[in-house]
Specification:
It comes from Streptomyces gilvifuscus. This protein is α/β, with parallel strands linked by helices. About 45% of the residues lie in helices and about 15% in strands. α3 packs parallel to α4, α4 packs parallel to α5 and α7 crosses α8. The chain is globular, with a radius of gyration of 17 Å.
């Protein structure tokens, strides 16, 4: 069975994607910082028959990243790496004039540096896979200028560029930066707590990720909304 590492997998998009892959027979290594919630997610997927290894920790910790890849190795290696864990930089979001520099450093460390560190750790296994794939979860804030989203958007823009370069440097892999669009997640609620407008559940965009895995287009940046419309 193919093996996926998914960071930020205890809830939201990470959990929804894990559930979809489990339904397809994937073995999973799941990461999140909150061990109790992560264990609950793993138990739910195991009840459906999936093989799941839950490894709680912080992706900015090199030892934790090594543990994730080692756990995948015990299941057969890394076929898919999904960098979904994210930090906002400030909760709620603030204008750049008020953005704590330490918050920006945290966003860059989680969203970019840790993502690259995990790729570096997993690269030998990804290269050995017949379908080695890296997915970095992006945001429309990486490409559009939205007030108060400057720090988070800058980190996602950096992640997008890193993914693009990785795709050039590793032609044997598929490297996709995916903008999932608006979703009702804890991250968004923390970013804009006063926004009461209804937003779609993360499960609604998972078919876009599955389409990429099925069709394996060229490395690049993709928007979930476009994939969903084209796939109808």
């Amino acid at each position: 069975m193919p093996v996926a590492i998914i960071t930020g997998a205890s809830k939201g998009l990470g959990r929804a994607l894990a559930g979809a892959l489990a339904a397809r027979g994937w073995d999973l290594v799941l990461d999140a910082r909150t061990s109790e919630v992560l264990r609950e997610t793993a138990a739910e997927l195991e009840a459906r028959g999936a093989r799941v290894t839950a490894v709680a920790g912080d992706v900015t910790d090199a030892g934790h990243r090594a543990e994730l890849v080692a756990a995948a190795g015990k299941l057969g290696g890394v076929d898919l790496l999904v960098s979904n864990a994210s930090a906002l930089g400030a909760e709620p979001l603030v204008r750049l004039e008020a953005l704590p520099l330490e918050g920006l450093r945290r966003a860059l460390e989680v969203n970019v540096v840790a993502a690259l560190g995990l790729v570096q750790e997993a690269l030998p296994s990804l290269r050995a896979s017949e379908a080695g794939t890296v997915i970095t979860v992006s945001s429309d804030a990486a490409a559009e200028a939205y007030e108060t989203w400057g720090g988070y958007g800058a980190s996602k823009a950096a992640l997008d560029h890193m993914a693009a370069v990785l795709g050039e440097e590793e032609p044997g892999l598929r490297v996709w930066a995916v903008d999932p669009g608006d979703m009702a997640t804890d991250l968004y609620a923390a970013a804009v707590p006063d926004d009461d407008d209804p937003r779609p559940a993360p499960a609604g965009v998972v078919p876009a990720f599955l389409r990429l895995l099925d069709e394996r287009p060229a490395s690049g940046r993709y928007a979930a909304v476009s994939l969903l419309v084209e796939g109808r």
